[in-house]
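Bench notes, afternoon.
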Amino acid sequence: MKVYNYLTSIVMICISISILLYAIFFLPGTSIQYDIGPTVFPIVISILALILSSGLILITLKSDDSTLLKELFNKDSFIKVLASIVIFSVYLFIISVLGFVISTLLFLYGYLSFLGVKSVIKCLLISIITTFSIYIIFNIIFSVQLPSGIFI
């Protein structure tokens, strides 16, 4: 398991460095003085990927290999991963039908319940705050159109 973590980290570090260098040297800048331009997002993402890949190497150095293998091949964990993939797939389908707000509220509430959050109020609060925060950030601040659904 440790070998896979090291290989994944090294590959991600190489990809991150490549993207970082490409963004710095080959993407066009901006002519507007205070505009961040098209290079900022790839630079930020590649730096975050570098940090996370380095963190994976450090965690792998400190971890016990036997516990990682037990968690990886645990039948319950595998079923939860498959169920999560199905839930995300259903969410991707219903977002075009019900729209972003309704489908995200339903998805977050259901997924938090699936993950074992017992408090109904906590599930509702997290779902509502997260959904409307994303809506405000993208739709109002960035003027990015989110799916409205066919019924709206």
